[in-house]
Write a structure and sequence with these properties.
Layout: E1 6-8, E2 14-16, H1 17-21, H2 24-35, H3 42-49, H4 51-63, E3 73-77, E4 83-87, H5 90-108, H6 124-141, E5 148-153, H7 157-160, H8 163-171, H9 177-188, H10 204-224, E6 230-233, E7 236-241, H11 244-262, E8 271-274, E9 279-281, E10 284-286, E11 291-293, H12 295-309, H13 315-329, H14 335-352
Antiparallel strand pairs: 1-2, 3-4, 5-7, 5-8, 6-7, 9-10, 10-11
Helix pairs in contact: 2-4, 2-5, 5-10, 8-9, 8-10, 10-11, 12-13, 12-14, 13-14
Keywords: Nucleotidyltransferase, RNA-directed DNA polymerase, Transferase
Domain Reverse transcriptase: 56-286
Protein name: Group II intron reverse transcriptase domain-containing protein
């Protein structure tokens, strides 16, 4: 497949990728994306006060390869698990949206359809729906034949991404020297992680980089191994087969590929299991006949409710958490569970009032 150095703009002109990133329309689009649902934040208001000047600076920094990533702001999140987030100021987010606007369509057309993370029209709920459909279809047409699954995820994925490997994968697709220099600068700016390893969770471009990195794994599994029932969401993936020995062979070859080609390791929890016992994936327990919210998700939301009761969080914070959780739980068979959680939350809010 040919490497990309130029695209055609809306007027039919052939322009470099760097020119496309610095296009006035693209910069405005990047700004609109970056401020979505954040327009009242202090850094957004400061940027917007001198919007035209700042957008001109974004454009010049990109076109002239003068962009230097700012210092990260570090904080931790604890749901669904503890993670360190490295966030950049609003200016940097505008720059990175401008970069992603151009690169995402180029890479997306090369990704396999069963890659579901951070892609338009995909996402965790679509991934869950696909796995549920596969299990339902198998149970419908092969009711007496067992089905088995590899349930795998990668150990400390974002922290383990090798910069040299990532740059090589990007260069298989992109040939614009200016864009490559810009991306190298962003990749190498990895905060408090060791030199040459790791990309920040929270960096906008990291989502795209993470998909680019594991596209090599997707291509290996689909085309080298010939696996049909394979689905991935970020660093979690599932493979289905009625042949346990085949799954064992695939798992060994995938583990070798990850280690030798991508310098990654499986999480020790990676396992092979009988699909009838349920498959944990993207926050749900999947079976052929139904889908349930994972038990650890229920435990977390109950802990959040207790925090409101004890005054550790405000009722507004609890309401926001409940809204998010019920939205997620609503994609599972969870009507009675949601009513129970909502009742507990209401009681906690009354107690805290």
């Amino acid at each position: 497949m040919k490497r990309v150095g130029y695209i055609t703009d809306k007027d039919g002109r052939r322009i470099t990728l760097l020119e496309a990133m610095g296009d006035y329309g693209n910069i405005q689009k990047a700004y609109n994306k970056a401020r979505k649902c954040k327009r009242h934040r202090k850094d957004v208001l400061i940027f917007t006060k001198d919007k035209e000047e700042n957008l001109d600076k974004v454009r010049e920094d990109i076109i002239n390869l003068a962009y230097e990533p700012s210092k990260y702001h570090y904080f931790k999140v604890y749901e669904p698990k503890e993670r360190q987030i490295m966030a950049l100021p609003f200016y940097d987010r505008v720059v990175q949206h401008a970069i992603n606007n151009v690169l995402e369509p180029i890479f997306d057309k090369r990704f396999i359809s069963q890659s579901y993370a951070c892609r338009k029209g995909k996402g965790m709920h679509a991934a869950s729906d696909t796995l549920k459909e596969w299990l339902y279809e198998w149970n419908k047409y092969h009711p007496d034949q067992p089905l088995y699954a590899i349930k795998a995820d990668i150990h400390h994925y974002f922290q383990s991404i090798d910069h040299a490997v990532l740059k090589t994968e990007i260069r298989k697709v992109i040939k614009d020297a200016g864009v490559l220099a810009l991306l190298d600068r962003i990749i190498d700016h990895n905060g408090n992680m060791p030199d040459g390893v790791g990309i920040p969770v929270g960096n906008l471009t990291s989502q795209l980089f993470a998909n680019i990195y594991l596209d090599a794994l997707d291509q290996f599994i689909k085309h080298e191994l010939g696996v049909e029932a394979y689905i991935r969401y970020m660093d979690d993936f599932v493979i289905l087969s009625p042949d346990k020995e085949q799954l064992r062979n695939w798992l060994a070859r995938i583990e070798q590929f990850l280690r030798e080609e991508l310098k990654l390791e499986f999480n020790p929890k990676t396992t092979m299991l009988a699909a009838k016992n349920g498959i944990d994936f993207v926050g749900y327990k999947h079976r052929a006949t139904h889908r349930k919210v994972r038990k650890d998700s229920i435990k977390r939301i109950k802990r959040t409710i207790k925090k409101c009761e004890s005054g550790k969080i405000t009722k507004e914070q609890l309401q926001k958490s409940i809204q998010s959780w019920t939205g997620h739980a609503g994609h599972a068979d969870s009507y009675n569970l949601r009513k129970k959680i909502e009742t507990l939350a209401e009681a906690a809010i009354e107690k805290a009032a």
